[in-house]
Amino acid sequence: MALNNNDLTARDVMRDAPVIPVIVLHDVAHAVPLARALLAGGIRMLEVTLRTPQALASMEAISKSVPEAVVGAGTIRTPADVAASVRAGARFGVSPGYTSKVGQACRDAGLPLLPGVATGSEIMMAQEDGFTELKFFPALQAGGIPMLKAWQGPFGEVKFCPTGGVSAANAGEFLALSNVACVGGSWIVPNDAIAAGDWGRIEQLAREAAALPRG
């Protein structure tokens, strides 16, 4: 089913595939072939992080040249990040933390957001603003699987995307939890493979990630 800003929701983003790749691009020329490799492997929700000067141009290149992919903006921290990301073609956003200003900017822009949380209080603040699909970050450092299990009781309606320390070795354990809809990770987009233009390797990693079972 085709998705656009008007009908895409945070839950759509989380349920599309078991893994959302956390992408750091240093060269715009890598953006389109990387997106095509991920798409060929079964991953179409692509989080391009705002960690490099090339991030916005990379989002724009993917959104224009690979329309079947759904480009998201990661590391959103301010309303200005939201505006710039939407102009670049982002169709969802991911933040490392949460503020009401960022949440409101995303609502105003029609941009589905996965807000970052690491504590019960942060979950409650995000819920107060209407967010129930959340990024758990940094997942491993903030308590990992035991923390997610502890949250199943008081926050049973919340779905999480654990990110930070998630790898091919432990992704399955996270995905087995009932309150985990997907995970975020960089292992399917390794820097050395991107730099070498080894798109076949990335396609295979994406294919393996897309096949991971969920609880």
TrEMBL record:
Keywords assigned by UniProt, alphabetized: Carbohydrate metabolism, Lyase, Schiff base
Catalytic reaction list: 2-dehydro-3-deoxy-6-phospho-D-gluconate = D-glyceraldehyde 3-phosphate + pyruvate
A GO MF term: 2-dehydro-3-deoxy-phosphogluconate aldolase activity
Pathway listed: Carbohydrate acid metabolism; 2-dehydro-3-deoxy-D-gluconate degradation; D-glyceraldehyde 3-phosphate and pyruvate from 2-dehydro-3-deoxy-D-gluconate: step 2/2
Enzyme class label: lyase
SUPFAM superfamilies, per database record: Aldolase
Domain of life: Bacteria
Listed InterPro entries: Aldlse_KDPG_KHG, Aldolase_TIM, KDPG/KHG_AS_1, KDPG/KHG_AS_2
EC number(s) reported in the record: 4.1.2.14
Subunit structure: Homotrimer.
Family membership: Belongs to the KHG/KDPG aldolase family.
Protein name: 2-dehydro-3-deoxy-phosphogluconate aldolase
Gene source species: Pseudorhodoferax soli
